[in-house]
Design brief:
Length: about 1000
């Protein structure tokens, strides 16, 4: 921004100023909504502002009107002295401390280090925390902004200015996300390490995508804005997109049903870098591009922007025609910004907030005492369309600061007299912040020094209005006191704003405080409501058990159902998601809708299991048993599986030694579509490794080991299992196998997977899997789950996928994933001992105490040498995978296992106990194997073997007849006679 005109260089001007006021600006002909009830153009005498028209044509004649602004100096409060004592003037974005330089400039009074702070029924939960949820000492975080996923209110993202040390004002774009309604937070770091960023503003669109607007300092010292987008709940962010802009920006996304739905609108202060006094821009394509900025008459500065219920756009702030006039507030309105085909135009109205905006004094020596807020009423009642404005202002008289409110009931044309929200006339009521609930309730919070005569400590106070701002509830403290002069990150302010979002049942607030002796960001859920009208506050209802809260989200279940926040399809009085989670209802397809609610017209066999959960091996969306019932000819062997789904039985397993470089494994069988699963045996490797499979052909595949961090690995044994894709029964053992293209990436704290459908019925399924391609050079590993991430696959519910653990780089190319499912049990295949089973949750990480043995159901005659394993479910948050462990793969009675995880976010490899599925073989096997004619197993084929061939003739090749299957077709018949005779006679 321009150093010359920066607000940091301005002082409060004389009380009487001359303002250039225009008579009228022509309204755009289009409106954002579909009906015709838009407010009419302002009439004569209405205070509007006009500037040159967008097309450069002459503007209407203007008039000069004297306005008494009532400017005055506010009394200076007594406060602690900061070190150094001089106040650095400036709302400026510039680098004083380069990254990596941590000057020893001050010491901070250190308080207790905690991450939650409670007063009464209100608990503030720290957001900028480490991986264990604890405070990070000596950093700083302020100026938070919050966004909530409208499709899933449990997903919340907060962004802030992150200072890695309080000794440096070099700031970056910090963020954290919560997927449990704010009860816990993950702070991955900053969007772009080492990049100077400030003024974060967050919002979300109707599809649940999050957007993060950030001011960035360019190499020339200018300030510009960029937009980041997250499509996975704030876990990761796409590359930034340019968005024009400058210092003290704000952003809002249209979530109405108007033609502007999805539009992104942004403003910034005029005296900044970009585009002179053109300070408004719009994106109609999700931030991919923005229109060149346009001018808003009056140049609203140090304020916010909002969207009305019909898509109209409002911008509020102080007037900045020729300078930043802290004594004059304006609200600008556009009814055509919603229309992608129109260049937006605005009409600006002057409003009275009963005082002046203040900067650089009192409790925030280097920042704003509050920005101007504008909000709109989207309720369905009489107050729909109301426009509200609020700011902490300096009123006439000795009272230094109050939170003042005004409203418009005619779409912003006229405004009420200002109303004071705080119910005392003493102390500093600063950082006034406002939001409006869908019901029309107006919520306001602010910092308040009323209880500290020295003015050194603030508490967050709350008040609400249920009558469109005519009256306000008794003010209530919702935080503990904190010394707002502690923990300055070499910049003497607590930022410039807080942020909050209202819903029907309460308020979600993001604010900064110094409970730990440093500036930290906190999430606070404010609820002082009685949603079920029983005369008991909701929090007490839940605490005393008079209402249930199964989510838990702090709302009684009956209110969640009544307000449409939760469904109750079976009218059980329990939200569907809790019915499913508690097991009172089955949910075979994992869509969090009880099965009994989905069987109408979707249960062809009448077994109260939705058809889309039944085996459907041919993928025609009709359960197999219904297919067969309609046409018995589809199952000529009467085994309950359509014949078209049955694959020719082919299977082989073995062991290969591999390291960094790919090894080609030749296959003995020729497959139509082989499904390959591999598992490493940790013997020589001391670093985490995953198996990477690629180049799968009908006759071979490649395999190597990979360390997620890219470190060299050591050669170790890898067991493999290959089976023909489809449904098959091999020596009485049932298998199903398939491949699919995985486009979902699961990771730390986000376990979703991709819904699969069993091809045949199971009682105790054992699920094994492998990422069977290497389209992306970065690592990934197979995982699976049942009803929830922590559950193993069940007979009806299976989700599979690839995960990247704690890797912060979560972008992966689509990969082929192979899945093999068999029924648990102990048997033989081709005469080789075999066992498959899902074990208990007892296997832990390599930093715990491996190996973790699983006992076989039945002892083997010899110790198995082939073991393919997969983790079943994900109980731990960080992400892990299973492998055989140690120099001894197995004994005749046990299999040795461990888990491992990547070291990309931390170095430890401990892990909570998990379940592991396994398939073990006594020794390598090829099925079907070609018979060698040696029935008596004496090492040669002679007349003593002829009797065995006669006995087995015209029989299947199982058991002792396998040596006679000379052509490998699993049957002893005339085709085997010549090969047997040739073997008998010899060369």
């Amino acid at each position: 921004m321009s150093r010359l005109f920066s607000v940091c260089m301005l002082t409060v001007l004389p009380a009487v100023v001359l303002l250039v006021v225009a008579t009228t600006i022509v309204q755009a002909q289009t409106t954002c909504h579909v009906d015709d009830d838009a407010p009419s153009d302002p009439g004569p005498g209405d205070p509007t502002v006009s500037d040159p028209l967008e097309d450069g044509s002459a503007q209407p004649p203007s008039v000069t009107v004297p306005i008494t602004a009532g400017a005055r100096e506010s009394p200076v409060m007594d406060r602690v002295t900061v070190d150094p004592p001089e106040i650095r003037a400036g709302h400026r974005e510039q680098i004083d401390d380069p990254p990596g330089v941590v000057p020893d400039r001050r010491s901070v009074a250190r308080g207790a280090s905690r991450s939650t702070w409670t007063v009464g029924s209100y608990t503030s939960i720290q957001v900028n925390v480490d991986a264990s949820g604890a405070n990070i000492p000596d950093d700083a975080a302020n100026e938070p902004s919050i966004a909530i996923d409208p499709t899933n209110p449990g997903r919340i993202v907060i962004g802030w200015r992150q200072f890695d040390t309080i000794a440096s004002n070099f700031r970056q774009a910090g963020w954290a996300y919560s997927h449990d309604a704010g009860h816990s937070w993950t702070f991955p770091g900053v969007l772009q390490p080492g990049v100077f960023r400030s003024d974060p503003v967050l919002d979300s669109d109707t599809d649940g995508n999050f957007y993060y607007q950030s001011a960035r300092l360019t190499s020339t010292g200018d300030v510009t804005n960029e937009i980041f987008r997250s499509t996975d709940g704030g876990i990761s962010w796409e590359a930034p997109l340019p968005a024009y802009g400058g210092d003290k920006n704000w952003m809002v996304i249209d979530r109405t049903d108007s033609m502007g739905r999805g539009n992104i609108y942004a403003i910034w202060q005029r005296f900044s870098n970009c585009c002179g006094d053109d300070t408004f821009t719009r994106s109609t394509n999700g931030g991919a591009s923005f229109i060149y900025p346009i001018h808003i008459p009056g140049s609203p500065t140090f304020g916010t922007i909002a969207v009305g219920p019909d898509g109209e756009v409002y911008a509020a702030g102080i007037e900045a025609i020729n300078f930043q006039n802290f004594d004059v507030f304006i609200v600008a309105k556009s009814t055509d910004a919603c229309d992608p085909s129109m260049t937006p135009s605005f009409v600006t109205t002057y409003i009275d907030l009963g005082g002046s905006l203040r900067f650089g004094i009192g409790p925030n020596p280097d920042g704003l005492l509050g920005q101007a807020w504008v909000a709109t009423d989207h309720s369905s009642g009489a107050t729909r369309g109301n426009v509200y404005a609020l700011c902490s202002v300096d009123p006439a008289g000795p009272d230094p600061l109050d939170v003042m409110f005004t409203r418009s009931t005619d779409g912003g044309s006229t405004w009420s007299n200002p109303v004071q929200v705080n119910d005392v006339r003493s102390g500093w009521q600063w950082f006034g912040t406002m939001s409006v609930a869908p019901t029309g309730r107006i919520d306001v919070i602010w910092n308040d020094t009323r209880n500290d005569p020295t003015g050194n400590e603030s508490e967050v106070y709350y008040s609400y209005s249920e009558d469109a701002g005519v009256t306000w509830s008794t003010n209530e403290p919702v935080s503990l006191p904190f010394n707002h002069f502690l923990g300055y990150p070499n910049q003497y302010k607590l930022g410039d704003y807080y942020d909050m979002i209202s819903d029907d049942l309460g308020v979600s607030l993001a604010y900064a405080a110094t409970f730990n002796g440093e500036q930290d960001v906190y999430y606070l859920r404010i609820e002082a409501f009685d949603c079920n009208g029983n005369g008991i506050p909701d929090t007490i209802d839940i605490a005393e058990g008079t209402s249930m809260d199964c989510q838990p989200n702090g709302h009684p279940d009956e209110c969640d159902i009544d307000d449409g926040m939760s469904w109750d399809c079976n009218n059980s009085g329990i939200p569907d998601e809790c019915d499913v989670a508690e097991g009172t209802s089955e949910d075979c397809n994992g869509d969090i809708v009880p099965d009994e609610c989905q069987i109408t017209g979707n249960d062809c066999n009448g077994n109260v299991v939705p058809d889309d959960c039944e085996p459907d091996c041919n993928g025609n969306d009709i359960p197999d048993d219904c297919d067969i019932a309609g046409d018995p000819g589809l199952d000529l062997n009467v085994n309950g599986i359509p014949d078209s789904c049955e694959a020719e039985p082919r299977l082989e397993c073995g062991v290969v030694a591999v390291g960094d470089s790919a090894v080609t494994v030749p296959l003995n069988n020729t497959y139509d579509s082989p499904v390959v699963v591999c598992s490493a045996q940790y013997d020589n490797n001391t670093l985490p490794v995953v198996t990477r499979v690629s180049n799968v052909t009908p006759t071979s595949f490649d395999v190597h080991l990979q360390n997620p961090s890219g470190n060299p690995v050591t050669t170790d044994n890898v067991s493999y299992l290959v089976i023909e894709e489809g449904v098959s029964t091999i020596d009485g053992v049932e298998f199903e196998a398939w491949t699919y293209t995985s486009t979902v990436v699961d990771l730390n704290l986000s376990w979703v997977g991709e819904l699969q459908r069993h091809k045949r019925s199971h009682v105790n399924p054992v699920v094994l899997g492998q990422v069977m391609s290497e389209n992306d050079p970065d690592w990934s590993v197979f995982w699976c789950q049942g009803a929830t991430a922590g559950d193993p696959p069940s007979p009806t519910l299976l989700r599979t996928g690839k995960h990247v653990g704690s890797d912060l780089d979560v972008t992966r190319a689509p990969e082929t994933v192979g899945v093999i499912v068999t029924e648990a049990g102990h048997s033989t295949i081709g005469g080789v001992g075999f066992e498959a089973r899902l074990g208990d949750a007892t296997v832990q990480g390599v930093d715990n105490a491996p190996p973790y043995p699983y006992s076989f159901d039945t002892a083997f005659a010899t110790a198995p040498t082939v073991a393919v394993v997969s983790q079943a479910g994900m109980i731990g948050a960080d992400g892990s995978w299973a492998q055989a462990y140690g120099p001894t793969l197995a004994t005749t009675t046990t299999l040795n296992l461990s888990l491992d995880e990547d070291q990309l976010e931390d170095t430890e490899r401990r892990h909570t106990p998990e379940r592991v599925a396994y398939a073990v073989f006594e020794h390598p096997l090829v099925y079907p194997s070609v018979g060698d004619g040696d029935f008596d197993l004496d090492g040669d084929v002679d007349l003593k073997d002829f009797g065995g061939f006669q006995v087995c003739f015209d029989q299947t090749a199982g058991g002792g007849c396998q040596p006679g299957d000379m052509n490998g077709d699993d049957f002893i018949d005339a085709a085997d006679i010549a090969p047997f005779v040739n073997t008998l006679i010899g060369p």
